[in-house]
Amino acid sequence: MWRKIWTLSLRTRGVQAEHPRLFTTTPGKPEKALPPRPKILETEIDESFLRGSGPGGQKINKTSSAVQIKHLPTGIVVKSQETRSRESNRKLARNLLAEKLDQIEKGEGSRMAIKGARATKKKASAGKKARRKYRKLEEEKGVKGRVEGVGSGGDGMSSAVSGDTGASYTGGGGGEVGPATGAG
Known about the structure:
Prokaryotic-type class I peptide chain release factors domain-containing protein, transit peptide, Mito_Transl_Release_Factor, mainly alpha, Double Stranded RNA Binding Domain, translation release factor activity
């Protein structure tokens, strides 16, 4: 019984139960891989664990889960207290330090610069697509909204719209404005 109801409900939606509709997507161009992060030697860093501060309650204030890493050759200091876990903060701090070192070494060829350029390009492309969409809608609206002869002057509509009817009003009658005083 359920099978019949299922096939009926599928048929009412325009889909046959025997041949389900397949949806396919076209694969996009694979993005070029980012360059690897530079390796940080253990001898080049000084790592310390600090007590966290800010929101998070008593737990974050009494445990030493915040990580501070100093890169000895450059003097760059990075601190991370994103999570309550010491290990995850340690990973985050090391990744942040690696990105900063990469940016100093490579400049425009660094991972951060490449990611930023990709994001800017993607945003510009999305904006261009949106403008194209609305331009197309405006063109379609303009074609559908036009009425033959309006504004051409051939049927007198343009002169009526502008206020020129060709007749002049002199106000005739010559009497006073107000109630008629016939007997009074």
